[in-house]
Amino acid sequence: MIMREAIAVQQARESHSLTFEAIFAQYQDPIYRYVYRMMGNADDAGDLTQDTFLKAYLALPKMPVDLNVGPWLYRIATNTCLDELRRRKIVRWTPWDDFMAVFHPKQVAGDNPEKESLRREDAEEVQRTLARIHPRYRTCLLLKEYEDFSCNEIAAVMGISPGAVKSLLFRAREAFREAHVGDKATRVKEGSPSAKGRVE
Q1: Is the confidence at residue 63, as pLDDT, over 90?
Q2: CATH numbers and ranges of domains, the chain
Q3: Which is deepest, 9, 28, 85, 92, by most CB within 10 Å?
Q4: What does the pLDDT read at residue 183?
Q5: Max Cα-Cα span within the chain
């Protein structure tokens, strides 16, 4: 994979647009899915994915031959999304439960109405929790838990050291846990129906 990408980067200097088509074909769908889950909106995902690849197209000839294309593209996509979120001062996220369904599809009981109802309640809780934690924490969790990136790959995307990724991931998980527990406690006090009859 890395050797093939290195060849693609080298060829980009000789036939830029032709080689970039191969990179685009390989990464278009993964980057789109990542951006969609960052933004929670198909229109935004389409626009920002296009922006990501435009930036990559313009920057690729300046990149080293041994460029690791995947993390580089994810880094561009991450910065593009965070810039847009900062501009809007809003954050919308796909429920965390949907992420876990990708890795553990057998745990999602689509044929069981009661379990499906509980799953939807959990998804709403997770979405509220994600909205309360820092965007850098969200980015780190998304790359680790959904994209299944290693610490080294996350480091490349976020522009920090692998050791810093481990620390950031720990803090992100703690922030998510504390926000989630706090949100549930608030709803219990308020008598939220979704909080009744649930056991931690």
Answers
A1: no
A2: 2-88 (1.10.1740.10), 97-195 (1.10.10.10)
A3: 9
A4: 61
A5: 65
